[in-house]
Design a protein that fits this description.
Layout lengths: L4 H21 L8 E5 L5 H10 L3 E4 L2 H10 L6 E4 L8 H7 L2 E5 L2 H14 L3 E8 L9 E2 L10 H10 L3 E8 L7 H21 L7 E3 L6 H6 L4 E4 L1 H4 L5
Parallel strand pairs: 1-2, 1-9, 2-3, 3-4, 4-5, 5-6, 5-7, 7-8
Helix pairs in contact: 1-2, 4-5, 5-6
């Protein structure tokens, strides 16, 4: 059952305050952290409630689910982020309807997006997705071992050289879920070090963005350098069955 609009609004402002507090605790400017409200599985009325509360950046996991939502909310000035794994055959949806793609995880997908974007005459900001926990169930370039990071560079360089319509802006990670705060912090710090490594390897590229942290752990992610946090259920409630 969807939450009432009043509760969604209260949740939204509570999360904004928690983001502010986490930024201040870590000596950061709160305006540097962007909240991506994850709308996966949520009904239009819930999404409209958070938009009317002030949210302007929304994240979706599946293109087909997102398209009717994008259409229904087109009267608002919204920024849509594709945050889920993308099959290359669905690249055209992201290229046409989304403002950001946060889950670029292979050269093959990059080249598919490049072809579609080139045909459309459009450029797309993207984040490179890395699997920092080594989980087989997760997408992204494997990056749990810093000693292997150099092996990632040739493929990333190929994207930079062959895909001019993709604008790399940073990285996205989805560390293993854990109730151990110290372990979660280690994963987030690991992600930040990976971003710093890539920034040194490709100094001509913008690596400003680190998208990490969800409803369960976003304050820790912010303290370790996140510039985007992806929060859904803490604002919109459990996804209706």
């Amino acid at each position: 059952m969807a939450l009432e609009a009043r509760i969604i609004r209260e949740n939204y402002f509570r999360i904004l305050e928690q983001i502010h507090q986490a930024a201040v605790r870590s000596g950061r400017d709160p305006s540097q952290i962007r909240l991506i409200v994850v709308t996966k599985g949520q009904p239009i009325e819930s999404i409209r409630a958070v938009v009317e509360a002030g949210a302007r950046t929304l994240g979706e996991n599946y293109p087909e689910e997102a398209l009717p939502k994008i259409e229904a909310l087109r009267d608002y000035s919204l920024e849509w982020h594709m945050i889920g794994h993308l099959q290359s055959r669905k690249a055209k949806f992201v290229a046409q309807y989304f403002d950001w793609f946060q889950a670029l995880d292979s050269l093959r997908l990059a080249q598919k997006l490049e072809r579609v974007l080139s045909e459309q005459g459009r450029r797309l900001p993207v984040l490179l997705e890395f699997n920092v926990g080594g989980e087989e169930s997760k997408s992204g370039w494997r990056a749990e071992d810093p000693d292997s990071w150099a092996e990632l560079l040739p493929e990333i360089e190929q994207i930079l050289v062959t895909c001019p319509h993709l604008i790399i802006q940073g990285i996205m990670t989805m560390p293993p879920l854990t109730e151990d705060a110290d372990q979660a912090r280690r994963y987030f710090a690991h992600s930040r070090r990976l971003r710093d490594f890539l920034a040194r390897a490709f100094p001509g590229v913008s690596w400003n963005e680190i998208s990490m942290g969800t409803s369960a752990d976003f304050p820790l992610a912010i303290e370790e350098g996140a510039t985007m946090v992806r929060i859904g259920q803490a604002i919109l409630g459990p996804r209706p069955e």
